[in-house]
Design brief:
Number of strands: 14
CATH superfamily of the largest domain: Dihydroxyacetone kinase, domain 1
Radius of gyration: 19 Å
Number of domains: 2
Distance between the termini: 48 Å
Helix content: 25-40%
Shape: globular
Amino acid sequence: MSPRAKKLINRPDMILPEMLEGFAAAYPDIVRLTDEGLIVRRTPKAEGKVGLVIGNGSGHEPAMIGWVGRGLFDVNVPGEIFTAPGPNRIVQGIKATQSSAGVLVCVSHHAGDLINAEAALELARAEGICNADMVVLYDDISSAPKGREPERRGTAGLFFVWKMLGAFAETSGNLGACKALAEKVRDNTRSLSMALTSCIHPITGQLMFELPEDEMEIGMGVHGEAGAGRARLVSADDTIQRMLPPILADLPFRAGDEVIVLLNNSGSLTFMELSILYRRATQLLAETGIKIYRSWLGAYATTQEMAGFGLSLCRVDEQLKALYDAPANGAWFKSVG
């Protein structure tokens, strides 16, 4: 491997089990690791409440293992690096919730995740588990044009769904209502990402894509998927100026709206840079008459050491504000309501 591929691992084939073992050992009051390799809540939610399950490829930490806990997910089904878990693994996750009120499988829209979740629900029904459903979620405006939103992929903006749905499911025993709430948050969320550098795949040791030093790419996916196009590298202010207006136009967001803002660190961007970017975002939002209700800056859905960020906005009403502010206790997201 070249020096660019340096990573502190042991054996490439042991990355996932060793990561999960270490993570569970670090947060034993919040999660536990099952014999099947699932991350589940240490303390299950009250009986009669809907269980929340998410399956996803690993390599994006803290998503999604860091989002299991009170007011968040009940079960995370980790797949291999950048690979969706198979249907049988997702069925294990459904069974692990042990919820009599039903189970909602949350799917970040990518082809493998969607196909495997659909197959998992068929397998579950064949085993007599009939109170499980799934919700497909997406937010990335660069991956399909307006009017074809269901074709879009899921990126960091699903942060808002996880938090608000997690709070809602903590008190709700209605599976249909939980799905509807997830769709409401999804439909009020828009995201756009960018990258300055690529990352090294931790198993193959290969650079995922090449990007010249004087260029950036707008619209990157969480697996390094190509975006809307490459452009000359510009300043932080100019980058926000390019990214925020198309986000606002897509919903559209309007003067008088209240929003929560997420600046997601894709891996190796510094907090210094995130703060400078956020400064300009707040200025532009103020100029358009949009009020910021809350904000979150940091690493949520990463792509290894990729340098870049995702900008996400979620329009909120009184219901969604209360859900965002509700108590949560995960390894990477804690709030006290």
